[in-house]
Each structure stands twice: as C-alpha cells, then as structure tokens.
C-alpha cells in the first residue's frame, strides 16, 4: 500500500512533466536512441578489440610478436594452431580428447547444479517453514565467506567417501544447491506468480507436480541464463578437476598445463592459439543459446 | 508437454553421462607400476631437465621413473602431504618445509647427506655449505636446496659493443665521466649519462617492471657488499634485535638509498613509466633495443630464445657494480658477492614425503643428481641454471653462450648468500626477512616519492620490532 | 503509473508465498493434509541440497573455523588452542598495526560501491536499451558477453598493454588531445587501484547484462506496450516500470555485488602482481594459504571479516526488499 501511494504521487508529478515535454520528446526520441547506439558501439569495439588482438597475434611468429604487439601480422603462421592441436598431449589425451571430457563434465555438472539450485531456491522462495530465513542467510554466508586452505579437508572427505579419481565425485561436488545460482533463481521464483499453482492445487496436482510441471518450465528463461553462466564457469574450472581427475584432464586443466609450458618458452603466439581453440566452442554455444534466449523473450509473459 | 520434454532431456542426459562415466572409469584404471614418482613444479625451468635426468637414471638403475610436471604443484603439496599420495619426491618453489617437518610429513634426510655421491665425496659435501645449513630443522636435514640462482643486471652486449660502452664495475666514479676503462673504473651512474648522450636519449639505460621484484637482485648484492655475507647470515638468524637497528646496521638502508639515487631520482634513466610496465612489456623494450639494461636473472636468455633478432640484441649478465664502501679482501679489492635468486623465505626445495613408498629409490635419485656429470646435464637442459651444489669440477662446453658462461663465472667467483631463515618470527609470519620494513620493498612507492627519508622508516620499523620482540620469542 | 501496473498485473502482493495462515485459499477440510503434503515436499526436496551443503561446505570448513582459534606450536608440531589471539591480531592490524592489511580491507570495501553503484546501474541501463532494440541489439548481446568467456589472463594482458606508456595506444591518443600529465596507470597508488576498478566495470558488465536483460525480457509485453500507448517517456518507463518489475533480480545482483568485497582476487592478481597496494581480502588469504605458514591467522582473517560482512549484506538485502513491493506477473 505504502509503495503504491508513493508511486502514485511520483506518477502524478511525472504526468505533468510529460505533458510539457511531449513535443520535445518526439524530437529527442530518435537521437537518444542513436546516442545509446554510439555508446554501445564504442563499448563493443573496446570489447572486441582484445579478442581481435589475441586472434591476430596468434598467427604471428614469436619475433614478430615481440617486435610490435599491435602490428597486423605480416605472414600467417597457421602452424601455431597445428602445433598446439597435434604436437602436444597431456597423459596421452590430446586437445580433442579433452574437449570430450569437458563436454561431459560441463553438461552433467550444469544440469545437476541447476536442478539442485532450482529446487533449493524454489522451496525457500515459495514455502514458509521454520528456518527459511536462516537458510537464505546461510546461502549468502556460503557465497561471501572467503575460506582459507580448505582443500586438504575437502580432499580427505572425498577420500573417505571413495570419491577421488572419479567423475561421480566431481559431479557431486558440482551439485551444489546453494551458491550464485541459488541467489539468482531465488530472485526469479520470488516474483513468479502463484496463480497457476493455486489452480493446479485445486485440480489435485501435488507439490511435486507443481514444481516439475509448472514452475520449472516457467523458469526456463532464468534457467537458461543462469545455466549458460554456470556452464562457462564449469568449462573453465581448473582446481576441482585437476585434483579429483588427475588422469583424465579436462580442457581447462590440459590447456593450463600447455599454457604454462608455452609461457615458459615465452611462446605467446602459440599461447593465444591455444586460448582461441579453447574459446571457440564456448563462443559458438553462446551464440546458439542467444537465439533461445531471444525466443524466450518473445514467448515471455503470462503465457509462460 | 514442456515439462515432459525437460524431464526427457534430463533423463537422457543423465543416461549419457552414466555411460560415459563408466567408459572413462574403466579407461582411467591405470596401474601405478613404477619404482619412483617425481612431481616437479612446471615453471621457468621447464621440464626437459627432469625428463633427461629421469631417463638417464632409468638406464643406469633399471628402475622405472614416473615424472609429473605440474604448474600448480605448489598449491597442491600441502594436500598431498597431509592426505597421502603416491609421490616420492617433490621439487617446488615456496614449500613451507619447516612446517611440514614439524608436523611430521617429511622424511628426515640425515642419511642422505652421509651417502656417497661419487668416489669418496659425500652428498653433504657436495651441497653448498650455505644451503646445507639452511636445510636443517630441529637439528635434522629435511630438505635439499634445489637451485643456486644468479641474478643482477642483464645488458645488451651487442649494443654496448656497437657504441663502445664499457661494462661498469663500480656504482659511480665521477673522476671518469667518459667511462673510459683505461682511465679508471667505469661507473654505472656515469654510463647512464653516456648512454643518453650517445643516443640522444633514444636508448634508455634501464627498463624494468614493478610487477616483479628483480631489482632485489641488484639491491641485495649492494647490501651484502656493504655488510659482508657473514653479517647477512647473522641477520637471517635474527641473532639479535640490533640487526634491525639502522644506527648500527644501516647497510640494507644504504643499498636501497643507492637504488633511489640511481633510479628513483633519475626517471630519465628508465624507459618512460617503467614502474607501470608489465614484465612482458619490459622484456620487449629490452630485446627490441629501447633499453640497454634490465634487472633480471639467469632465465632471461633461455626464456626469450627465438623471440628476438641477434642483430639488435645479444644478452649478457654483468657482475653487480661495487658500491663505495664495499667490504674488501686482504689485497684491498672489493669482495664480489651474489644473491642466490629465489632464496628467501622457503626458497626452492626438494623434499621426500614420509608417506613415500620408495624412499630408498628417491634418495638414490637425489644422490645421482648431484654427481658432476648430472650437475652439468641439469645446467645444459635449463640453459645455465645451476643446482645448489658445488660446480667447481664442472666446465661448460665451448658451444655455451656468453650469457651462460657469465652465469657460471659469477657463481664461481662470488661469495653467494641467501635470505633463508628458520627463525621463529619468520616462520610464524610476523616478520618478512627480506624487507622487514613494510611498504618500502615496493620500488613503486619510492619511485613516486624519491625524497622519502629512509632512516625514519627504518627507525620506525626498528621500534615496532622492539615492541614485539619479547612476545615473539616467549 | 501504479494503476497501470495493476491493470496488467491483477495479483499484486498477494499469495506470493504459501503460508500457514492463508486459510482463505483452500477449503478448511483440506488444510491438514495440505500441511502434511507440504512438509513432505519440503523435506524431500531440500534433503539432497542440505546434505551436500553439510558435507562439502560445513564439514570442510569446520576445520578452518576451528583453526581460526588455534596457533601452530613449532615445538610439538601441533595446532593448539589460543582463544581469540588470532582475531585480536586481525583487528590490531586492521586498526593500524599493519598499513598493508589496513589498505587491503579498504580496497576490498571499495569494490562494493564500484560494483553496486557504478557497474550495476550501468548494466541496468544497457539491458534496458538492449530490450528497446537499439540497432544491432543481437550482435551487442554476444559482444557484451565476450569478456566473461575470454580468459582473464588474456583480457588483463590486452588491457594493460593498451595503457603501456611506450607500447600502448591510449597515451598517444590522450596526447593528441593535448593532455600532458599522463599518470602512471599501473605503477603507482591510487591510480593502479582505480584502473583495476575501471577494468572490473569494463569487463564485468557482460554477466550482469545477461541476467538483467533475461529478467526484463520477462516483463509482459502488454505492460510495456500499454506504457507506450500512454505516452510514457523512456526514462519513466525504465525507472517506474522496468526497474520495479525486475527489482528482485536487481536486489540479487546487488547482493552478489556486495559479496565481491570478499571474493575479488583475479583482477588485482593479474593486473598488478606483487603489488601490496592493491591487495584484496581474498587475494591476501590466497597468498597466505599458498605460503601455508600461518593458516590460523588467515582463517581468522577471513572469518572475522565475514562475520561482520554477512549481517551487513543481509541488512542491505532487507532494506532493498522494502523499496519496491514484490510484483508478480
């Protein structure tokens, strides 16, 4: 109530202003959009720039790179790519093999984590029960507490559960319900309408049914947005797989080993080539999902 | 409908994962059929050396050696020692070995130091004495020092020759402004002026980066020149509170002041905004001939191989020029000293975990490593880096570069010193032994305010150590 | 304006939670079984997340928490209880005993205004205009997301090279505009700290934009179209319709921004390695753990600061929750 009256006075004041400025706005409307466009363009250029920089330095020879890091390459050393793709391996796994391992871990890890965090956030956002606020506080606490040196403790627990050197172990570590995803999905479920649930309850639907059949599909846009960010995080995760999957390197682990070897030789162009190879799949996936997000935009709203 | 699709996708995903997990877990079932496993931190020295040593060891003994070169090893060691692992030897920077020794995670190596490396030469004799004494904790050996680094000022030999510049031998010699080696000692300060004059300021004397602490290699040398290496030893052991008193022990402060006078008070001697440069950018300026000198260490040449044109740059390492007041020998000549790069706090270490299943093979390998032929092999595979051992019987092949030869010469002719300390306040993290004065170690700070009164800072620091001293040792 | 929202959004502020006392909703006879059902549902659903949290967060961290009250005894090689000594040292150092620790805490705290009051409003603006279909929106969305996927090492390298005094191109441009006294971007404090903030804003917008434009795109088209018919200006549409409607997402992003006080680490580590002027809490702990010698102190350091920080964050969350009522749509 308080809020609506507040916004009402605001809107009244706003309405007067808008009458006075109506004609003015029509004139300004277009150029305002173009100003925004220009700002976006400048920002976009600064963002594309490092990527382009990495791309054209990746085909230089070492000498060329050290001569002038901004110059356009004089000749194209595509062999940089060939070298890092075929002349290196980690534990007899080539870059392609690492891709496979990473895909499995990323997909499964993201699916599990999304499921767990949507369950946790949904229940805490939509149901009133004892300890609910404490759980929310705990989620913030988990995110904020910088913990010092927990690796040995984590490892010894994993060891006693026989979960080291195993994919399942890594996936269980990833299947956390409380974290970044929790907070985002909590914000989402919090303002998701309960109308449908109400109707479904009357129709005899169970709470589980409401969650899996109604709420989860409605949460698709949020799940996709969070999922993409989470997947990128898992794709790039180094610490967990390097410790719990030492013999089956994921792309992030293998690439890191490779990069440190190349950095030791100051072989920056090959370093960039390695990074680009590791980057292209994520970029491709993101561009694909971009479409899905847009489609969700169109289908958004009450129709769910 | 939509819910079903999601469930279906999820179920099929999980099925796929299960299949792949099974497939991989069978594939991952590799057996550990080796006689020795060595884990090495994979940083600037690369991994060629360990592979070469391991293959040679295999050939000689018939044992199978597994090598793990891991860039992230340093952060995993604590975990592996505490929870047990299949590692038999660790080579890494920054191992808190005293802590692990105290906790009982490390194999004592007293017997190793008594082992014969080659005819009549004991392991303990082969290790340089300064490193041997710094490898003891509670009266027992728990580690072997890894490398004996060499740092200082790297200069562009090609450029020096082209312009007829002589390599400076002293910090400053105002009586020889033309830097003519015939007319007396050549001063670094005067050379800087000459470089600027000869090239119209096109070439700057120095390029550097505050990203790294490579100026330490020069400043520590100055400190040891003034104080003598024995005094540094007393200092690292915290023999008394007085080692921090700038009144009685002003040498570190004086060395730093020499740096301030040369670099901070002469911004024109350095490439513009060196303090803000990334280390890679500084290297670029050096190899492209925009600067004549760069503070660095033994790895610069090997690290930059193939990245520059020999018509612009040929590298060499100069012995650190002497400061006025450097300690002299009986002939009145200043005593050359050289800081063992990386030898502060924990330093580079080799340890054998208590949980190792192949301790004898591990010790055998370390003894094998210190044999003269293998000392040389290590050096060749790392382009001139030396193990922390006696290299007096090792000579380089003629094919070695001038840079490598300089590294060898400097190591052989200087008194080496380090800042390794097992004193309690250092172990407990109360005191940083290399730069006890908080905030001063950052050359950037002094660059922004070259007129800082160093004495005041050191005095303040002394007072604060004075206040805490008894508490630290209670 | 509120009328407008009410028209398009019939249910406001009602029934957004299943609560024990909203007896008006279900027939009375149904109530007990409903309650039972709900309890079962809550228990089943939260079981795995809570067990996972208990094992892999609580059990793992309990050691760290205990360690904060211990010190290492070098004679016996064991950790021994020392009460609040570590905490006392932490607060003494923050209080002025250590200039580095003090500066570290100040730097970290400054990440809050930077992420919450500069980065977040900017990303709301950006998201809104992306939604408004500025020419090239589709391409911009991909591009704006680039910094989140390019490795930090590369991004920071390109960023710091651009500002290099002799190799970079920023200084020549500034000089062309007649600016003479160009500072040392990464060499000296506080410029280097400011540059890290600039980097964080520049590179960090992308993730926020994805989250917020996801939320804005969920605003019913009817609401936005209605406002257009009413002749509502862009500024008012943004602040009086879009922002209130996506408020929970903004709140969440704000909270995440607050936690950056404790989590930022990679940016200073990459842009100004080995500088003790630009340390953050997380970076200081990271360095301390890597060194391994004084874990108890760093445990206490992290714990003490979060014990202060988390309630502050929760209060912020509570205040933010009061600004706009939750709106369902």
Descriptive account of the structure:
The complex is a heterotrimer of chains A (304), B (474) and C (329). Chain A has 14 helices and no strands. Chain A has 304 residues and is an all-alpha fold. The longest helix of chain A has 56 residues. In chain A, 45% of the residues are buried. With 474 residues, chain B is of the alpha/beta class. Chain B is globular, with a radius of gyration of 25 Å. Helices cover 71% and strands 2% of the residues of chain C. Chain C has a two-stranded antiparallel sheet with strand order 1-2. At the A-C interface, helix 1, helix 4, helix 5, helix 6 and helix 8 of A face helix 1, helix 2, helix 5, helix 6 and helix 8 of C.
SSE layout and pairing:
The complex is a heterotrimer of chains A (304), B (474) and C (329).
Chain A: H1 2-57, H2 62-67, H3 79-86, H4 95-126, H5 132-144, H6 151-160, H7 167-174, H8 180-190, H9 195-202, H10 207-218, H11 220-236, H12 239-244, H13 251-264, H14 268-299
Chain B: H1 2-27, E1 36-41, H2 48-61, E2 65-70, H3 73-83, E3 89-92, H4 97-103, H5 110-114, E4 116-118, E5 121-122, H6 123-126, H7 129-133, E6 136-137, E7 140-141, E8 144-145, E9 149-156, H8 157-163, H9 188-198, E10 204-206, H10 215-227, H11 229-236, H12 251-264, H13 279-287, E11 291-297, H14 299-303, E12 315-318, E13 337-344, E14 349-351, H15 359-369, H16 372-381, H17 402-413, E15 415-419, H18 424-427, H19 443-448, H20 454-472
Parallel strand pairs in B: 1-2, 1-3, 10-11, 13-15
Antiparallel strand pairs in B: 3-14, 4-5, 6-7, 8-14, 9-11, 9-12, 9-13
Chain C: H1 2-8, H2 31-67, E1 70-73, E2 78-81, H3 85-97, H4 99-131, H5 137-149, H6 152-162, H7 170-176, H8 191-216, H9 221-230, H10 234-245, H11 247-263, H12 266-271, H13 281-291, H14 295-323
Antiparallel strand pairs in C: 1-2
Helix pairs in contact in C: 3-4, 3-14, 4-8, 4-11, 5-8, 11-14, 13-14
